[in-house]
Amino acid sequence: MILFETLSQPIIILYVALSGFLSGLLFDIAYIITFLCNQNKIVKNILEFFATIGSFIILFIVNQIFLYGQFRLYVLLFFIVFLILEQYTLGKLIAKTRNWCYISFRKITQRILKLCKRKRNSKPH
Q1: DSSP class of 70
Q2: 3-state SS class at 9
Q3: Among 10, 51, 57, 88, which is 20 to 30 Å from 29 by CA?
């Protein structure tokens, strides 16, 4: 890739968009872990902090590799736009899937516990 060549701008935008989506996935992972920890505020804050740091690291690495360290405003704008876009598209799908899995797991667990309770109560002592 040639430095500041106009032809490489679409490739740069593509990589910035992909890095924005990847950063959005970091936040989705943080939300899933927070959900599994019963919405603990301390865990939530720590995980969001690490997701934010991870996002900045991803943006920094993409900036170093494809823009040779030249920070440009459009890179930040595309990064933020695609991070938000990921949260409202794929992030919503991940959240719905997470909730469906959680509800299904709870139903299956409750059925298993009921069966175990019935077997235990039906045993003659």
Answers
A1: -
A2: helix
A3: 10
Single-letter code of the amino acid located at 28: D
Residue pLDDT, tens place only, 32-60:
999 888 888 999 999 999 999 999 999 99
d(CA 47, CA 3): 36
Q: Is residue 104 part of a domain?
A: no
Rg (C-alpha) for the chain, rounded Å, is: 22
Of 79, 101, 94, 84, whose CA–CA distance to 18 is shortest? Answer: 79
How distant, in Å, are the alpha carbons of 28, 87, 117 from that of 23?
Answer: 9, 10, 45
Intra-chain end-to-end CA distance of the chain, in Å: 79
Q: What's the maximum distance between 2 C-alpha atoms anywhere in the chain?
A: 84
Within its chain, how far is the Cα of 5 from the centroid? 33
| In-domain check, residue 2 | no
Please indicate, yes or no, if residue 48 is contained in any of the structural domains: yes
Q: Under a CB-based contact definition with an 8 Å cutoff, are residues 75 and 16 in contact?
A: yes
Q: What is the pTM of this model?
A: 0.75
Domain that holds residue 31: 8-90
pLDDT of residue 123: 63
